[in-house]
Amino acid sequence: MSMRRAIAAHKGGHWPEEAAIDRVTLAFVDRHRRRLRLVADSGTPFLLDLPRVQHLADGDGLELDDGGYVRVCSAAERVLEIEADGPTDLLRLAWHLGNRHLPVQALEGRLRIRDDHVIAEMVEGLGGRVTRLSAPFDPETGAYAGADQGHGHEH
Question: Mean of the pLDDT values across residues 101-113?
Fold first, then answer.
């Protein structure tokens, strides 16, 4: 018997969740793939075999070649939550993070990034408050997700 293959990825809310037969919990770095052997939370291996690289987010559904679906879940990982005294201060911090091309998750009144002690010190030096925690990380994919990922400028 051959290994099941996930042949398509569907965004959360755009797949029949009642057809989910399993789930797979992945860290952020493991959710931007095209082809990879994965192990579902039940212990069952399957092959992610998509036509192109795709960012997978919490709640997405992987369509299997036999008709079932596997729900994508974001794993808890080491992150920093960043808060500021007001919206303008938080916006300024977001600009500094974006200027460093860091993946950022925008939450209500705070930002979330992967844990990085150098960036934490920078944020605190700019007046931000940093809390370290273990939580799912699902950053913005960007305006050009799926397009050429060139930045349009030189470094």
Answer: 96
Residues 25, 74: contact at Cβ < 8 Å? yes
CB atoms inside a 10 Å sphere around CB 66: 9
pLDDT above 60 for 144: no
User: Given this model, what pLDDT does residue 141 score?
Assistant: 79
- pTM of the complete model: 0.80
Round to whole Å and give the CA distance between 20 and 71. Answer: 6
Hey, how many other C-beta atoms are within 10 angstroms of the C-beta on 121?
11
Q: What is residue 140's predicted lDDT score, i.e. its pLDDT?
A: 86
Q: How far apart, in Å, do the first and last CA atoms of the chain sit?
A: 50
Mean pLDDT for all residues in the chain? 91
CA 113 to chain CA centroid, nearest Å: 11
Give exposure, 20-50, as e/b (b: 16+ Cβ within 10 Å): eebbbbbebeebebeeeebebeeeeebbbbb
As given in the structure block, the two tokens for residue 136 are 């799912």
Please state, in angstroms and rounded to a whole number, the distance separating the CA atoms of residues 112 and 42. 29
